[in-house]
Each structure stands twice: as C-alpha cells, then as structure tokens.
Specification:
Length: 296
C-alpha cells in the first residue's frame, strides 16, 4: 500500500523544547519538493516518547493538514500501554492519517503472545491500516517471525518496519508472509539489500537530510536495478553511519539545523550533538552533496 522512501521525520522544536509549528510546516514542504514518498509523523525519531498526547495528536493533525493529500501520512501511535496505543491510533485516524506505525511495547518485555494480543487489540479497536515496528535494539523486545506471520493474517495489519538489520530475518518474513504483509527496512545501512530481496521501501532517518537521494535509491531498488542502487547508496552511506554517532534523532536534528531548516531544540533527556561529533558529521554531509546553510 505504501512503497518507497518514507521519512521518519523529526519534530522541530524551539530552543525551549516547544514544538515549532512553523518549521514543521516547512519540513513537510521540503520533503514533498524532494520526492519523499510518505511522511511518518511523530514516530520514535519524532521524539514521541517525550511529547504528551495533546502535542502528539496536534503534530499529526498539522502534518496531515499541511500535506493535504499530496503524499501519504503515517502516524506513529505506538506505546507500551495497549490502551494508550489505542487512544493514539484512534486520534491519528480521526486526524486523517493514512496509516499508523506501532512500535513494540518498550521496557515491558512482553512474551510473543503478549505482542500478538497487543497488536490484535489495536487492530480490532481502530480500523486504520497499521504497520508493525520491530526495533529490539531500542525496546528490549523482539517480535519473532512466527508472531509477525500470525499478525499478518489480520486484515488491517499491512506491513512491518523491520529494524534488526538482519537480512536473513527480513528474507524469512518476506517469504512467510507473502502478499499479506509488506516489509520495510528500518535500518538505512541495510535498506538497499532488503529492498532488493523483496522489501517495499524504507522508513528512513537518512531521508531527513537526503530525501531526494533516498527516493531515488528506493525507486531503482524497487525496479531491481542493483548497479544504479549501489551507485546511489555509495554516495550516502556515510550518512547511514554518522546519523547514528549519538542516539537518534540527536545527529539528524543537528544536521537539519546546520542545513538551516530547524532550530537546535530537542527535549531532555536528549541533548544537542556533542562537540566532538560536529565536524565529522559536517564532513559527511558535504561529502553527500548536502549544502549547509550555516556554520559555527
């Protein structure tokens, strides 16, 4: 249903941590102008963990309104409370989002049956297309292929963002779920290979700063053009690495600030990029052909 480069968009904030609605609107336009295929609003890269429910729903509504149907909007609505996830998913549907992205419950460490029942309850409660999100490196919770296959039989569970960077795992899910479930990369460094083995796109951090290149990478991967895909990926592979010099979204937000697109605002317990990483990231941005709009 949703294919290509889907940006896990940061949530711009003012220096005091308040959501910067003006910069948010400008980022939406930046992505549409540069070929992004869908926007993920208030996913984990969008600092969903530190936005309250009113802010969370407000950002989704603003993105949906600004996009105005030009590309799909996928709303992050996961939580480690099933009731909260249902409330956020219902809010996203009411705001006009095209789908929701639901991260596995973090910290709770539910068993596989708990994961199945959690996602089934949300899918049963809210009739919006839903995308599973498995990122055990951040959640301490790993949704195994057996559980993914069970969930793929629920009609409005349409895809999974698989962020383990395990290509064999991704291949297994593609083979087991077939047409019931699209598989998206959740790891930019392995996204090319995942798409070439049957994935339908990437929910990308790199697309925050290199949206055109990520769109083109997805386009040629979905056509099966490995040679061109390798050429494009080589031009931005430094971004795949250095946008994780510190915890996401610290480097991505700092890079966007250097590009002149957002302020330095980020919410505690996250802080702006440490000084020792700034010049290495500047070099990587320049090497990827990204123009910086400011310098310190």
């Amino acid at each position: 249903m949703f294919h290509g480069s889907m940006v896990a968009m940061v949530t711009p904030m003012q220096d005091d941590g308040a959501v910067d609605t003006q910069a948010l609107a400008a980022l939406v336009e930046f992505h549409i102008e540069n070929g992004t295929d869908a926007i993920v609003a208030v996913g984990t890269t969008g600092e969903s963990a530190t936005l309250d429910n009113e802010e969370h729903c407000g950002v989704i509504r603003q993105v949906v309104d600004r996009v105005a149907g030009r590309i799909p909007v996928i709303a992050g609505s996961g939580a480690n409370s099933t009731h909260e996830a249902i409330d956020l998913t219902r809010c996203a549907m009411d705001a006009g989002a095209d789908a929701c992205l639901l991260v596995t419950p973090y910290y709770n460490k539910p068993p596989q049956e708990g994961l199945y029942q959690h996602h089934k309850a949300i899918a049963d409660a809210v009739a919006i297309p839903q995308i599973l999100y498995n990122v055990p490196g951040r959640t301490a919770c790993d949704m195994l292929p057996d559980t993914v296959e069970r969930l793929s039989r629920i009609p409005n569970i349409i895809a999974i963002k698989e962020a383990t960077a395990d290509l064999e795992r991704a291949r297994e899910i593609v083979q087991r779920c077939g047409d019931n479930l699209d598989v998206y990369a959740g790891d930019d460094a392995t996204a090319m290979e995942l798409m070439l083995l049957g994935g339908k796109g990437v929910i990308s951090v790199t697309a925050n700063v290199a949206p055109r290149a990520m769109h083109e990478l997805c386009e040629v991967c979905l056509l099966g053009d490995r040679a061109r895909a390798e050429e494009i990926n080589a031009s931005i592979e430094g971004l795949h690495r250095d946008l994780f010099l510190e915890s996401n979204p610290i480097p991505a937000k700092w890079a966007l600030h250097e590009m002149g697109l957002i302020s330095t605002g980020i919410r505690l317990p996250l802080v702006p990029l440490a000084e020792q990483y700034r010049e290495p990231l500047r070099r990587t941005l320049r090497a990827a052909g990204i123009e910086l709009g400011r310098s310190d």
